[in-house]
Design brief:
By secondary structure, the protein is mainly alpha-helical.
């Protein structure tokens, strides 16, 4: 499994757990309303608690905060993975253009093909790379690259 995909799956699982626990915690004030009243008294004016803070509103605030936190966790993580992928693609593009300028496009194509093939062969020994290897093999075969497993 590629590093970025592992981070995505891990973050989605963690965010889902936070959201589900937050929703479960949001249901609790519907049967136990005292925390809503404590919150209303704590954040209201002295001697005058918040009158709009009912257990139902408090439940929605708790559940909504958890879902919002989970959403932002996933959004930030996806931005980091996208940035990292863009950096890698830019590096490969610079490398390809440099080789194409110095040696010609045919040599650069062959170099990139060999580089992709070495990445595939390197990942064969890693059983954790479940999805990245298959995508790479499919892209390589679509480009006409023949990959023969080592015996």
């Amino acid at each position: 499994m590629p590093r970025g995909q592992f981070y995505t799956v891990f973050t989605l699982g963690f965010a889902a757990a936070i959201a589900l626990l937050g929703i479960a915690a949001g249901v609790i004030p519907l049967w136990w309303p005292e925390p809503a009243y404590w919150f209303a008294a704590a954040f209201g004016a002295p001697g005058k608690p918040l009158t709009w803070m009912t257990p139902t509103v408090f439940s929605f605030i708790i559940a909504g905060a958890a879902v919002l936190l989970a959403y932002w966790m996933v959004t930030i993580q996806q931005a980091i993975v996208r940035w990292s992928g863009d950096r890698l693609l830019a590096k490969l593009n610079r490398q390809y253009n440099m080789i194409a300028q110095l040696q010609g496009r045919e040599y650069a194509d062959e170099f990139m093909r060999l580089q992709a093939q070495s990445m595939i062969e390197e990942s064969e020994g890693k059983p954790f790379n479940l999805f990245g290897r298959e995508k790479m093999l499919h892209a390589a075969s679509a480009a006409g690259v023949r990959h023969q497993p080592s015996s």
